[in-house]
## 1
Amino acid sequence: MGRILNYIENSGKGVYHCYQTKKFFLETTDYDILNYDDKPSSSVKASKFAESDQTRVPSVLIKDGQLKRIRPIFAYFLDGSRHTYKVDDISIGKRIFPFLAGQIVVGCCERQDRDTFKPFRLCHDLVLALPDEFDYDDEGENYCRLYCEKINTEIKDLAFVKLSNLKFSKLLLYKTDRIDSYSANSKDSYKNRAVSVIQTQMTNKEQELVAQLCTENRLDSSHYLIKDGSLEYNSGRNKSEEERLKYRENYRYVVGVSKSFDPELIPDFEGHKLSKTIAGLKPHERTKVYRYKSDFNGEEYAVWYLRLRQDDFSETNFSDIVKCEMVILNEGDFIQTDLINSISANLINEAYPVCYGNDTRWANHLYPVYLTETYCKSKYINSEIVLNLF
Amino acid sequence: MERIIGKVSATEKFPSTIDDFYFWTDKKQILSPFDIVKVKHENESVSYGVIEEINHITDAPSHFTSYISSDFGSVDERIGNMNRLGMNYVKARVVSNTKDIYTPVLNGQQVSLCSEKDVKQALGLTEDEVKNPLVCGYLQMYQGEERIKVKVLLNSHFLIGPDGAHINISGISGLAAKTSYSMFLLRAIQNKFKMEGGETAAFVFFNVKGRDLMAIDEPNPELDDSDKAIYSDLGLSDQPFENVHYYYPYSKDDPAKVQSYALASDVENQRMKGVAHTYKFTFGENQDKLDLLLANEDDSSGTLESCVNYIINQEGGFNNIEKWETLKTEVDKCTKTGSNGGQRNEIQVASWRKFKRCITKALSNDVFAKNTVKDEVELCHEIQYKLKPNQVMVIDIARLDENTQSFVFGSVARAIYDLKLGAERDDIPNKVILFVDELNKYASNDVPKNSPILKQLLDIAERGRSLGIIMVSVEQFRSAIHDRVKGNCATQAYGRTNAIEVSKADYKYIPKTFQNMMTRLSQGEYIISNPALRSLVNVKFPNPVYKQFPNG
């Protein structure tokens, strides 16, 4: 048994028992809560347009002229990812829960010109995910913070901890009172909840980073940010109206670009499935921009789909299509069609060069996003080092 | 602090070793092979590396990725909003460490450019380190404002003895400027001996092309101010050679009575100044050098050698001969059979006939004369008795036929050897520096093994250092030269050459990039190897200080 498990068992004085089960790295793909970046589809019959041009056509072509004469508007690229580790099973009272650890990397890169692409900001966090039963006296935030500090004190003298300046930044507690509704396997439900709190912590970090960029006035109409993945965060559910307003304001110059998406998330303006329109998009064509209200956080989004390249070379009909999202600042607002076209043209341009050979998702991967992702992944601490702390 | 340009990268496939390391740098950082960089190392020491290879790499795993990235084969200049991520990685060979620590440099260490002082320290060129300094050119590195120029000083003891001797210079005709570089070095040597006193040196040059060396004591009117500034920076005189004497082969028919490409008026001017002499070879002074006349003849059975020995030993009718004509008559007698009134001796008539054929052809040149009159001289006599310290003898052989050239060269080389071995006079120069152009004529792999000139050259190459005979040899293709001759040259200078030549075994030890560079060197640029240098060095030198004859 390593330092942390030992400490938890000894300091708990019989409250906790660690079983020293096998420690392992959870493959992200196997344990993703969601298959798509999207949340489950809403129940709207026919979608409404969220762009100023209300022409009732299924798709809009981004013309070559638009592609060639534009100045790049994207200057920042953000990506977040996390690794999760099952470090033990812990018994509290009569129940046994999985004990997870997470490594979160959220990075942002800045592009100054065609050749200057530099890391702008990086956030690297180690977190612990334990059942809420762990806080047996219901002391809340304070208990978690103090316990996390104690663990850091316990491990601080380890040589490799000193060398890499390792520190746990947060102890997260996952709920144990009811079974998650979308967990296929109830056996893994606690584990999924633990992963989910780590995921939420990651998205919080992403939002903090965007907020920082806004505070520093980095984002404006000629310095947009591309966020890899959806802008629809789970965590908005419990936010106050003021916080939600702040969130919307921060995301004014942010475009969320998802490579994997549910094509049937929203119906088209006639109430038909949009997937058919998406599949039928010609190269450099986009769908109309639809209004989508999230059931999860209550925010309104402008959503459209864009084919980045010639489809002759794609593996499937959807593999060179991206889902684009922007936050609608005030409910019912429209986004100017010129801006949408300009963003779409920029996204098509961002698709070159390609990461063919390095990433199987090359067809709908944007190169600067790919670089940001690669940069973030390069910042992970070796999993063996993390597991050996326990 | 000099600019930091990258960091050391040690990977599984390309680790840092005692000998070399890799570092990454910005793709727009301009560097060249032979540039020197420095890296901080253990115990606050600094390791210096000389750049050998520069590679540009992107994150594209295949050319197909590049093709797709160009919008599936579009040749437009700009596609997309950014260029593919790329960087240069550079291989550098470790040349030195300030505290003699040669464990591999560590991953992640910063790599920076060098100052002039650093470069000198890296290559061992600091004034403190180079004893008996002799300028052999200058090196330039980096671009733009960071460009630095460093004087390359070599310890003359490793160049012209006693610790190392002989210089070999190779490169293709014209583009390499071999003669110019040889003269640059020789002028620097003359300058050094004159300025420093102490040891003395004399110089013997052979002029083998046009009038190349026939005005080395006249200034070069085309030497511009920038060249003069370089000479001044290098601490060298921009004046031509001093104390030069020219030796022209005798000719019966030429108006100036010389066989030379030099203009009659120029020869006359030199005569008036007392620096031009006409040389001849009389039988009396040269009978022991008969073997040199036959140096280029294939004599695997030794028949010619036995004839030569027979004559040198004055056997049969060959005693008391004083003239070449008498020699021919006597040889003629030996070619007749007894029944035809010939003289019988132990050498077969057929051998004598072969000897006659060879010798008649060789002796047909006017330099083989009856006697010397007025100002005419015997070359061997001049060397033996008149070669003084700081004197330069230029012997013109450009217009002579190949056999006679070999004879002249062979007899001069032998005379120098004899001078250093046993001449009895007080003012024998401590060093005699022999400049041999077209070395391939005398010491190529194709020269017969028993060639007396080759033997002479091997003697000089192998024993010359201790005797004070230093050879500065020049040839087009180093690979064609006899191993023992080039192997004994401490200093090698490689000028522009061709790809076929660098593929030969002689160049195997030179890194591939440097080999390729040899095929692109510009005129006046050399790659130098010397035991006192820690690495091969790419040097430049200014235009010659003496009068040039670009059209021969």
## 2
Amino acid sequence: MTAIPYTTDVRPDTGVTNPKLGMWLFLASEVMLFGSLLSAYVLLRSGALTWPDQSAVLSVPLATVNTVILIASSVTMLRAWTALTAGNMRQYRVRMGVTLVLGAVFLAIKTFEYSDKFAHGLGPATDNFLGLYFVLTGVHVLHLAGGMLVNAFLLGPGARMWRSDPRRFTQRVEVAAIYWHFVDAVWLVLFVVLYLL
Amino acid sequence: MMDWLGMPVAASAHAGDVDRLMVLVHWLMLVLFVGWGGFLLYVLVRFRRSAQPVAMHKGMRGSWSTWIEGGILTAEVILLAFFSIPTWSARVDAFPSEQQSTVVRVVAEQYAWNVHYPGPDGLFGRTDLALLGPSNPLGLDRSDPAGRDDITTINQMHFPVDRPVIVHLSSKDMIHSFALPQMRVKQDAIPGLAQPVWFTPTTTGQWEIACSQLCGLGHYRMRGFYTVESTAEYEAWLAEEAAFLLEQ
Amino acid sequence: MRFFKYLVSTDHKVIGLLYAGTSLCFLLIGFALVLVMRWQLAYPGEPVPLVGGLFGVANAPGGIVLPEFYNQLGAMHGTIMVFLGVVPLAVGAFGNYLVPLQVGAHDMAFPRLNLGSYWFYLAGGLVMLASFFVTGGAANNGWTSYAPLSDLAPGHGQTLWLVGMGLIIVSSLLGAINVITTIVQLRAPGLTWFRLPFFVWAQFITSFLLLLAFPALQAAAILQGMDRLVGTSFFLPSGLAVSGQALNVAGGGSALLWQHLFWFLAHPEVYVLILPALGIVAEVIANNTRKPLWGYRSMVYSVFVLGFLSFIVWAHHMFLTGMGTTISAFFQATTMIISIPSVIILSALMLSLYGGSIRFTTPMLFALGFLPMFGIGGLTGLPLGLATTDVPLHDTTYVVGHFHYLVAPGTLFALFAGIYYWFPLATGRMMNDLLGRVHFVGSLVCMNLIFMPMFVQGLAGVNRRLWDGGEQYAHAQSVLSLNVTMSMAAFGLAFFQLFFMVNLFMSLRGGRVVGANPWQATTLEWSTESSVRAYRDPYVYSLPGAAADFVPQDQPAEPS
Ligand code: HEM
Ligand SMILES: [Cu+2]
Ligand SMILES: [Cu+2]
């Protein structure tokens, strides 16, 4: 079997590799997914007779902390990739490790937020705002967890590729980073829409 | 040339507008289909392999296909701008005044049409979810002064002829669709939304109300009846219903 | 064991054939369901002959189809035909098999993803089928699953429908990413954008529609799943009372939200059903007229416009939900505008016949049959797209006739054309011509006898989705007997599909063995080179002065 071209090489006339294009296409559909959920939010909120004061129901300080954490993790993810482009595997491991830990802290805080809501008898069925809050953040958390799985793979078993095919490995990390930034960006939107507006 | 489509009798004031557009569109469709079909048949015969052993590399010349496409677009714009939009606007933007109309509430449920006339005082009584019961599917509050004289029926509607009718449509459970084929009226009854619809019956007769939106296993039998009659007959029917109400 | 090996192969051809086999099975299942419905419509309340006993007492006591069961059949017929039959065949099978070949690639860009997409599809299909066997049976709220009906539907059928759709959506997304990346990245040297066969363009735009429209249904399915399982009220407005009981939910939701999300997917989805068909027909017509397609570029531009516009017409399915003049005018206008690129493509295909040297091969017959059938489907869309005439026609059998002309004698004919045309590519053998012709003539006649009367009934005001076919209604009486005609024709259609099935299996083993390029075609899928290079436009047929009446795309220019 012949290897599939442009898996690691950039195709000159299109300017991308296959995995990168694939990732951008995937993110386009993700934009539509979150866009649909957000438009459901807009439609339900604008049609509602009453809508709770969002920032009173949710904890803005916790979410602010989480926002800072995710932005930081985006930075470390980016720096993990630049470490690879500089050929520094040790540094990559540290930075990728930090990215993972930051993701885990985000999840921990989110779990605390959820359980705090449940403890106060608030759940998705309470009203449509909380329903949307749980759906939107839940879908986001699933995306984040998926990204963490990929990152863990790239830190653990997947890192073996560094020795056999460093260029391809670096590109994998780059594509994973694009995804990670997207998940981060989605959170920023959710933070504004669900906590602040 | 109106009835070749076999539509139900047109018995409301705006039915003629709907049917005219329907006929025009179908003429357009027919002309296009016959034109294209004729062309297709001609080409298939003329350019069969035995008549045309070697194909022309260049094929058809000229730009008349662009003209046809432009023609279709023009026809569509005319149908849209001069027929469809004005008729639609007359249905949804120009409601008659309630004083000059017969006003009815219709509340759809699986699988019946609950009909609510305001009675002699012209006011609808209060309704409340808590009052729902087998004998009170509308949840009408009879202790409300406005509701004391209200007339309710199930699956039965009466309208006086030549007077606008306003139906305030709603639903208790699923989405239903309130269709009066002879009035050229069809409107979804959507829970949570108030849907007014109006028409002016111009011909007397007895016909059926059909639910047009899948609303469950009994959708096929969600059938009601409506009668368009002279004002005198309509008044008599109201009086009869009012007397019936007093007996209870 | 060998079969198992096929199930895990990442070769695009094997995956394409897996898709083909699976989707043909689903088409058959979807068709079988509708045959039961057609019996019930023609003879309401009479026991279904032969198979009536198989459905179980809960569905069909004494073989008589219950209304609940009829609604299951209807919803699952639509779902299976659209999502598990036609799209997987048109995109999964034809796309997978042909796109890499036609762009001169060795495989799809992401072979393992490709296999994954097949597995998600199969899983989704099996979940859908399994839902027939849970208590309460399969989903029975129409393929549109309008809320609140679907939200509140008892049993697990609707929940499984959501799960099944979720899996199918994932499958489609993976497939779409793969097809687009393959076309963008793996085009052979020399194969510039405007040298792509029209089929590839059709698949390209189709994939974008899948990629960008399906997430809306995914979102909707998540929300509906929450409503059903967790008790949220996204689609449940306040003040609902079901069976005389006030419903105990928070309320505040919107029943129309579901329709918006659903149709935002489902309108582009109808273009997903027809664009690949147009692509197949274009290939077959170019080959069998022995001349280039007329107006290739305008066809490509039209496909782009179609794809774009298909995202802004969705609410023409919702004219009767209480729409003001402005919004209805907008959606009527976009609907009229979108008809123009469709007309351009159809005209180009017809004009391509002019000046040809037409071979009436079996694939060509199906492609030619497609043209007027697709035309009828498109034309009958006009009165449905004008809000005023939609009022009497909405939710009548007229609508059913309209979209079936597009997808049954339309898309299905194109898919048959494709199967007859590319069968030798996959197997090295021809399908039997005589059986193919009988299949075509029989299908053409029966299809029209099934779907033409639907327009007559619809104009008379007969509603769709009626368990008894409208028997109770006075306005249906004059056209009621057509139900029998249509059902007889449906059974006739089943009979003529036997010719196809026999042909398919017989030809696999015993078909006439042919060489590498039996149709003397020009496009790259017929090339036998291991690595190809394109030198010219896709359809160089009957070039004056050329040695043969076709010049393959990969044939080097003659040294002059
Ligand atoms: C070729 C044979 C076919 C026949 C005889 C047939 C017949 C029917 C009939 C009788 C109905 C039910 C109408 C009603 O309940 O009032 C129906 C519904 C439907 N069909 Fe088909 N059909 C065929 C093929 C297809 C194909 C190929 C597709 C899609 C690609 C399709 C998509 C649908 C859909 C979406 C519905 C609506 C289901 C619903 O009511 O929710 N059909 N068909
Ligand atoms: Cu109903
Ligand atoms: Cu549409």
## 3
Amino acid sequence: MQANTIQNRPIIEVKELSKTYPGRVEALRNVNLSIPRGQLTTLLGPSGCGKTTLLKIIAGLLNKTEGNVFINGQPVNGPGPERAFVFQDFALLPWCTVLRNVAFGLELRGVPGKQRNEIAMKYIDEVGLTGFEKAYPYELSGGMRQRVGLARALAVDAEILLMDEPFASVDEQTRRKFQEDLLNLLKIEKKTVVFVTHSIEEAVYVSDQVALLGPRPGRIMRVINTRLDHAENVEDIRRDQRYLNLVEDLWQILRQYLI
Amino acid sequence: MSKYKPKTKTGLFKRIAWRVLSLVLVFGLWEFAGRKPISIIFPTFTSTMVALMNLLIDGTLLSAYAVTLVPLAIGVALVGFLGIVFGILMGLYRSFEWLTLPVFIIVQSAPMAALIPLITFLYGIGLGAKVLAVVLMAAPVIVLNSYRGIRNANPTLIQMGRSFLASRTQEIFKIILPDASGMIFAGLRLGVAAGFIGVILAELLITPTGIGDLITYYRALALYPQMFASIFSIVLFASVVVSALQRLEGILFRRQQCTS
Amino acid sequence: MIIFGRRIPMIFALLIWLLVWEAIGRAELLFLIPPFADVVRAMFKLLATGKFYQAVSVSFIAFSTGMMISISIGIPLGILMGRVRFIDELLGMWVNVFVSAPLTAIVPALMVLTGFGQTTVIVTVILFSVWIITLDTRAGVRNINPSLLEMGRSFGANKLQLYTKVIFKAALPEILAGLRLGLIRGVRGVIVGQLLIAIIGLGELFELYSRSFLMDRFWALVIMIFLFAYMISEAVNHLEKRIEFWASTR
Ligand SMILES: Nc1ncnc2c1ncn2[C@@H]1O[C@H](COP(=O)(O)OP(=O)(O)O)[C@@H](O)[C@H]1O
Ligand SMILES: [Mg+2]
């Protein structure tokens, strides 16, 4: 019974969260959001509405002005081992090989060299970069760099992945491939993912639920269940009528908030 | 960098051809100006080169360089180590930055050469004076480059480190310092160039030894080809050293330059 | 720095250093460093002497003449190097050599060629400043987005318009950066030139004060020159900030 209640409780709870940047830029106002365990939740909204701000406060990288964020019932005071971040601009160490970049989180935790390289190799494999472990970031394309960023986040074995527009700087074809690979990967790795995007298609394609953020100051307008049972084949989603309807529904909601 | 990077053998050949043409053009003009002559004092390029060969063969130049390069090396090593440490501390500690940055901001645009006359009072006219001149000229750029390298370390990388729970020590040694190293090295290169200016100024103004003395000496004797040969040699030598450092920088920090 | 929750401006750090200076001077640790109060007094005394004004005006004329020539050579040359390949190939190497060469060594040669006077100082100023202006201008021209040039051409700009209305303006951020560095180097050129010649302008005063151990005046002069260089650099910096917005969206 006890275990069951923990399982049903949202893993991340955001309560009455506000953020005002110095210079009185009000980025978030009174945000409330529950993020269920083991699902992929997308924060969707126009550029500048505060998605990154919200995600970085959840990550413990930014201080909030008011309100609280709870992870597993504990208030957030900074970064923690149960959360791993995937950065929009990759944030790879340019002077380190792919292998060392992927192992970087483990290196910081003091995992011995041989062991962390083994773990890193496993994830390099999982994200499809086998053979590139000796390469340096500058030798990789944008999409491959983000795969390194993803592998690094997976390698530290966090329950929660926080992904800030991970595919924004990648071209359309690569992005689609990456989205499919992400869904396949999440079938193996049971993670809770908070995913930020400004693309409606991407949001519907990858997520179980979508939280719509309105323009500044960012508020949650609506949370919509977008779960399509894509257990069998991720390649069929884009043809699914429910997918197409959801994209259109979200657009109809979002366009009301545009000028 | 250049749009015309050599990618093929012919590209390389063309590049060398341009180099040669450029040398021929300038030295040709020099020869022409010397033969015309624009001034009875101005030696031709060929007579300068002949003088340079003679100075090289009889060892004059070599012994002059030995005297000039020792204080340069000592000064650069000294200010290289202390200045980099100082700049790094400035970048890492806000209160230290607050105390020292204003001084360096003024000093970076100031003509430090104005202080050279004071050096005689401190160290007389020996090795110490030259070392101090090198330190004086090279310190501002070395300190400020190290400081800026640290302060401008990529904030996303620092955030990445924090999100993966880096301690402050790990953040400094695994992220900030490697990220700043390119800029620190560039400061060292600029410091070497400034050090050359310092040592020559000291030799011309206060300590008549080394290559600076050679210039003054041949001027006094009105041996202008020799004088121009000495000047030519030091300008050439300094450019070779500085561009070698630049090459090295390109090789060492290639990875950083390509991704950031 | 923040003390008791208040932000203390950095300029106060300079005050602390001046106090340290005063203390060292009072303690007579080094005869080279007289109390700062004496230096300030000497500054006022200097400002009342004709010799000082003469030195300043000679130096300023050399500086401004040299800079004017330097700018009118450096910027067009830089633009040409950025646009015309063979000029770039022919001169690029030399500009790069001279931008970091110990040009101090060349001043004695100038002295025998152009004499122990103002001309040599002016040439020194040019020699010190022109290369960095050229190099930065060239970099600015090379950084121009090619589609901006195509835009100019497709809307029918002629060559002159293209150079003055598109290329020069688009390269302005780098040109100003080069100008700032050039001015700083120009001040250095005046000082180095006059120190080596030792019989004109500020160089003569430096020589005089250090020979006769008038340290308060020496420092008064140093401080005024340093402040002059700083103010010039800040003035250009201010201009650079004003057009910074277009550097990012070119
Ligand atoms: N460090 C900061 N200082 C001041 N304002 C900021 C800062 N970072 C972001 N902002 C502002 O806060 C708002 C939300 O930014 P952000 O969270 O990055 O939006 P999004 O990721 O949705 O595009 C924007 O209007 C932005 O200009
Ligand atoms: Mg964002």
